[in-house]
TrEMBL record:
Residues 5-262 form the Heme-copper oxidase subunit III family profile domain. CDD domains: Cyt_c_Oxidase_III. PANTHER family: CYTOCHROME C OXIDASE SUBUNIT 3, CYTOCHROME C OXIDASE SUBUNIT III. The keyword Transmembrane helix applies. It comes from Orthogonalys pulchella. This is Cytochrome c oxidase subunit 3. It is a multi-pass membrane protein. InterPro entries: Cyt_c/ubiquinol_Oxase_su3, Cyt_c_oxase_su3_dom, Cyt_c_oxidase-like_su3, Cyt_c_oxidase_su3-like_sf, Cyt_c_oxidase_su3_a-hlx. It is found in: Membrane. Component of the cytochrome c oxidase, the last enzyme in the mitochondrial electron transport chain which drives oxidative phosphorylation. The respiratory chain contains 3 multisubunit complexes succinate dehydrogenase (complex II, CII), ubiquinol-cytochrome c oxidoreductase (cytochrome b-c1 complex, complex III, CIII) and cytochrome c oxidase (complex IV, CIV), that cooperate to transfer electrons derived from NADH and succinate to molecular oxygen, creating an electrochemical gradient over the inner membrane that drives transmembrane transport and the ATP synthase. GO terms for molecular function: cytochrome-c oxidase activity. GO terms for cellular component: membrane; mitochondrion. The lineage of its organism: Eukaryota, Metazoa, Ecdysozoa, Arthropoda, Hexapoda. The keyword Nuclease does not apply.
Amino acid sequence: MKKNFNHPFHMVSVSPWPLLVSLNLLLMMMSFIYYLQEFELSYFLILLISLILLMYQWWRDVVRESLYQGEHTIFIVKMLKLGMFLFILSELFFFVSFFWSYFHFYLSPSIDIGSMWPPKGVKIFNPMNIPLLNTVILISSGVTLTYSHYNIIMLKYYKSMFWLFFTILLGLYFSVLQWFEYEESYFSMWDSVYGSNFFLMTGFHGLHVIIGTIFLFVCFIRLMFKQFSLDHHFGFEGASWYWHFVDIVWLFLYMFVYWLPF
């Protein structure tokens, strides 16, 4: 492609990753729907691993364009920030749809579920147990991530790596506890509209925590290779924005899905 330097935009080279990632996401959603019809979950997990590998390839190219080719100018970084903001905004509307469904049935439960919420016969989780611990974990992870970001600004990279690694451990701990909570659940996704709403809302949030943890792990690797500087560390900032968004969503989940019905 012939370069035209009369504009501030970065004309990226032809890349297979957007198409492959899109197809992978489509197949992931299809496999999840099949799982709801009592098919194997293994297909979804295989496609999740495939997605991680594809994202690694894509991020590798982005890092090369920024770090080695110098394509990410101040203008491009502004556009990347705008893109990340719009992405998080789209994720916000994604969760708004779940909360809309939840409150629709919470405020006006049908006679099919006994005109009560939660439905009669559904034993819900105690919000003072694992849910409260997970809340403390995510809030703490937000604090440690902010401190890691502060150390990047202060050019204290080893301290930043320490606090970022601690944040990753907290994210993994949250995921393990949520899996344990699912294993101990007295109801399933197929137990009325309450079970469907609960597992879709908390499950997709848990998936976002896993994705956010992967984001942070990529940032940790880049910190090890000293690929961040005071002026150029948007990769870290973008991951931080995403993680704080996941934290905020969890607070609403805890208040309305765990604590309010209890």
